[in-house]
Amino acid sequence: MNDRFLRACRREPVDCTPIWMMRQAGRYMAEYRALREKHSMLELCKTPELAMQVTLQPLPFGMDAAILFADILLPLEPMGAPFEFAKGEGPVIHSPVGSKADVDKLRIIEPGELGYVLEAIKLLKKELKVPLIGFAGAPFTLASYLVEGGKSSQFAKTKRLMYAETETWNALMGKLAEVVRRFLHAQIDAGADAVQLFDSWIGQLNADDYRTYVQPHVAHVLKDIMKRGVPVIHFGTGTYHLLEAQKEAGGTVIGLDFRTPLAEGWKRVGHDHAVQGNLDPTVLLGPRDLAERHAARVLEQAAGRDGHIFNLGHGILPETPVANVQAVIEFVHRTSARK
Ligand code: CP3
Question: Whole-model pTM?
């Protein structure tokens, strides 16, 4: 097995810097779009053979890890909050959560209720020649979809609940954290070689409020999962002001988004942690030499130190030309080759 990715997570020496890309399976690939003509997003997620097929689609580009094809929102349905991916709108939660009674109704599910995800992991482990990354959404990011009913720009309902009804907020976050903790354990039991916690929208909070309203719940998940000994990647966006607080909450690897200079971010989380990031996904739109110039800057910031996993600072955009994805992977491997 190509273990560069796992070695970098553990800050061991590597032959060259490993690379994978968030959302590496998806709409920028014609093969994915072709499958989506026949199946809905949820059908792909819920059919282990299809989820496996989509997970494998980008790997010929040379990625050093696979990320399971699934979605952070999947646990919400069995918890009692069904949703759909509406065309052009993103996720829509049918009955958003707004009150204590709504939170009381949410169920703390057993991971077996997401058995299709665990089955996809087992199928993939038979096929893969690179490590498999399992994942879950972090409590704040999941809560924001549940409370807003979908995507949001101001997060007003979420933050109102957090500030004005803190007891209900903590009950909601507690349930989500416990579901996520159990689900990540189950993914590791099924064979995931590493796991990533996506706290995509956490940059909405200032550092004090993060520590008060969120950090204990994230720590509940991560401190426990870290006992399993597989690498745990803790990712968020807009987190320049939160990096120290996120590191305290847990994670073997801290994800850096594209706004934080990698060298500064790494120094602040400490060189005793690995870091993942942080090319701006927009530069992959091209031209190719622009993408390569920016990739070179990320590598310069990492300065050849052990413990860097090359990635984007957020997910790959659907408009991205496949040729640029391939070019950047090849460029990172070639120019980071250790002498
Ligand atoms: O990274 C991968 O390739 C693995 C699969 C994966 C998906 N979603 C597939 C997906 C992962 C890791 C996610 C995580 C996810 N899902 C996050 C955290 C990461 C991030 O980008 O911040 C979030 C916030 C979600 C919630 C979600 N799912 C949204 C907001 C959307 C709509 C976005 C859009 O661009 O339409 C989804 C749908 C979704 N999840 C798609 C994919 C490939 C698009 C589905 C389609 O229309 O084919």
Answer: 0.97
